[in-house]
Amino acid sequence: MISLRDNGGVGANRNKSGPTYWISDNEDTSQIANWKRIPFNQFRKAVIDACKEFPDLPQNEHQDEKHLALVVHGYNNPWQNSVGLYRTVNDRLFAGNSGLGICVLLTWPSKGAPYDYLADRDDVRECANDLADILTELYQVLSQNQIRAAKDPNAACKAKVSIITHSMGNFLVQVGMYHLWQRINSPLGLSLVNQLLMIAGDVDNDIFDLCTTTGDGDGEGIANLAYRITAFYTGLDPVLAVSAGLKHFLKRRLGRSGLDRTMGNGHTPTPDNVWDTDCTEFFDGIPASDIHGAYFAKDRDKAWKLMEQVLRGIDRGILVKTGVASPNSWWANKAQ
After folding, report:
1. What's the CA gap between 40 and 19, in Å, rounded?
2. CA distance 23 to 232
3. pLDDT for residue 86
4. Residue 47 CB: number of other CB atoms within 10 A?
């Protein structure tokens, strides 16, 4: 776990001294007493050592390659709730020999209601630099490994890096990755992150219009640092309906409406590595009030299957053809 919270890692405000790093071997992770705080260097070594234990697979088995995945929660998640989400994701996708690898929670101080949006947005901007610091360290490790692998193929990385982010956590990742992208001189098409899952994204649905760059960077940093970005959305989400009215006039939420598909009026088309998928069919029988977080409900098998296959890198056209993803999925060069 990486915590951006004060009060010993569980507080409601940002820790002004920066991120803290934690590990736990206890089955009950719902209590901070069962976590051990460790220095960053020890945390980094623990993660690197764990990734070294992953199998070294040939290229034709890349879909089975393990992941180092960062899970970022959304609004209305006190520390205990964020750990609950982490455990659910970890147990469903990453646990056991057949799991996808290692799951790390990034927990940040979010507020508890849609009308707290402005305060949350300020918290996100403060936390974004912390996330950029974390990703910078990761970037440096991967860069060093790449240099070593050029001399010795046995030194190549055995893990893919992926991010699963929910709700307003998408805004945190958007801003943090933009800051990182600027720090490393704005490279084009660098695959630091293999798969970025933007679930119920509480961000503008035009963030990948690369013609305009705001102070928050829109999606330019994300698009250039991730191999593939998948936006999960449903028009049934009432939380994002409220959110849209509080945030950016004339633009809708990515997690409610999908990508902005209007490519006229001089706008640059959505980058080819970005796509969306309509998840409405996953929520039969779910009360409207629960839909925003229902992607992670334990009985939503179709949603979990889609997340797993996206993480494995299955081609989006195959996901649609096999019915794992909706035929209403869209990307810029999709054959009609």
Report:
1. 9
2. 30
3. 96
4. 18
